[in-house]
Amino acid sequence: MKPIVHLRAAVALLGRFPALAGIDLDVVRGEIVLLRGPNGAGKTTVLRACAGLVPVVRGEATVLGHDLRRDAAVVRRRVGLLGHESALFDELPVVGNVTFWGRACRASSADIASALDLVGLSGRLRDVPVGRLSAGQRRRTALACLLARRPELWLLDEPHAGLDNDARDLLDGLVRQAVDQGATVIMSSHELDRAEALADRVVALEAGVTAAQRAERPAPEPTPEPSAPAPEVSHVA
Amino acid sequence: MWRDASLVAGRDLRIEARSRVTVHQVGPFALLVLVLFAFALDPARQILERATPGLYWITVLFSALLAIARSAALDEAAGVRDAVRLSALDPAGVFAGKALAVAAELLVLEALLAVGVIILYGAEPAGVGLLVATCLAATAAIASTGTLYGALVSGLRVRETLLPLLLLPVLAPVLIGATRAFEAALGGAPADGWPWCGLLAVFAILYSVAGALAYGTLLEGS
Prior knowledge:
Chain A is α/β, with parallel strands linked by helices. In chain A, 35% of the residues lie in helices and 24% in strands. Chain B is mainly α.
């Protein structure tokens, strides 16, 4: 099956630092892939690169059949990113935020209402300003914004962070439901037990490449110590 | 584009209506500046009356800086810029929406200040057609230029201080044109004011087009 995410020797820079150092990654439709690795391994950058937010400067990068270097704008409209930052307006109520972002992504009123319903925010919380919500409720609101746009590729960065157990169960259920309906999911998480139970495949990352690539790469040549200059030998007649 | 503009303008105005920054901060600031000018120039009443158009537009410009900075700050909230890039919003529509929201706030402010100069400075409205046209053209010029420069400094640590430094010199022609047009209207010679009003309209069109074209690039670059 042709992968819908195809990264081959992909390099992405954050400033001058290569956050992705030639990574290879293929994800097929309907898969749930978990990215794991220590802080700074490149998990968030992989997700942002797949969303077309971080430019891939070298290598191959194709998402949903589009070359990220040429058609990033097309890709962006078809993916949904749930990142660390929620992009919510504190002054607007939950429904105002979800409606704005839903309409901005051409979602129908039915999709917006359904998204609020699915995350359990269609009741009394619907009209509460987001600034007055708890961190978990804000996360649910951000999830509703993602659901309203019905993305083909879900990119979830630490999706379980800040959620209580009920909300985590809800999120896992929504992910499985989306996959059943044809979506594909790439996520990163430090909640490994829960995330590994949800994922079909786990990809370990290290220093901007997969751990498998890292193991295959020859260790860098040790830099020779600068040798001390040979002592001059003086010959005395 | 206009659908997106209306969506973004509606969002900004709803946020403004709920936070009431214009009502509670920008409006009182503008009135305070008018009052301070009146205190400073009151002994020379003739000077105050002659300087009314200039003082009015200087007050509008200073107050506009607050409204523009506030408008730019809305899109600086965590993750908003990325979310806009991931959405289907047309960058030109986002620019137009933000400029329209700022313009709506400025028009309310200008109406309030007009009442202020009538009461405090004893100005007598004349040439109402020219006054209204000047307000509309100058407001469009200030809002479009301000929205463009707000996006330009967005993401910089020194944006609060950099915005007025960059924007005020660029808006100097608007200050001059609007002041001259008001002087002509209040002086009973509106025919002299229409060319200035035309200059303001040209300025507004130029910056609206430039903003609509450049906003996408600025969004990507910030």
